[in-house]
Amino acid sequence: MTLIIRLARLFKADFHRVLDHIEEPEALLLHAIREMQDSLEQAEINLDNSEQRDRELTSRLSELKESLDAIDGQLDLCFEANNESLARGLVKRKLEANVLRKRLSAQQSIIQQSISQQREALTQNQLRLEHLRQKADTYISRQKDCKDNDSGIDSILAGVGTLAVDDTDIDVAILHEKKARNVP
């Protein structure tokens, strides 16, 4: 069974190599750049979502702090009035709020670490994309120059029209080339 799988992988790899040679490298390079750009845009969206979640947690923690401050004020009143049963309910709410505050703070810490990592990765990937774009521009301009040079003599000859060169002219030119190179 593993032999069949290995042969299938080998065939698939060779098939992909053949396709890579058939397809134009310029088109593949531009496609890779587009995919990388799409990936960066998605990473920016993810970063924005993480930053929004961080702002929501900050707001929620601020509301919790205000609630805890209000509970502390109510507890002061309960203790001044010697109403321990009412204070007991407030203490329970305060403990629950503190547990929630700790959970939200832990979540915010994780999100802030994630935001830091996302920003760093986004910056690195933007630099890689720019570097890849520069290489692609260089490659494409070199390919264009090569095509221009290859077609240069053909376009010159095509612009002249039909040239009449017979076998005698070729024989004489060969003799001149041999003489110039000291070939007997």
Q: Keywords for this structure?
A:
184 residues; mainly alpha; Helix Hairpins; rod-shaped
Structure, explained:
The chain has 184 residues and is an all-alpha fold. It has a single domain, classed as Helix Hairpins. The chain contains four helices and no strands. It has helices at residues 2-22, 25-80, 84-160, 167-180. Helix 2 (25-80) runs antiparallel to helix 3 (84-160). The longest helix is centred in the middle third of the chain and has 77 residues, at 84-160. The protein is rod-shaped and about 125 Å long. It starts with a helix and ends with a helix. The model has no long low-confidence stretch (mean pLDDT 82).
Profile the largest sheet.
none
**Average pLDDT value?**
82
Helix content: over 70%
How does the helix and strand content classify structurally? mainly alpha
Rg value: 37 Å
The low-confidence parts are: none
Q: Helical stretch count?
A: 4
* Beta content: under 5%
Helix-strand topology string = HHHH
CATH architectural type: Orthogonal Bundle
- CATH class, named Mainly Alpha
DSSP summary, beta strand count:
0
Shape: rod-shaped
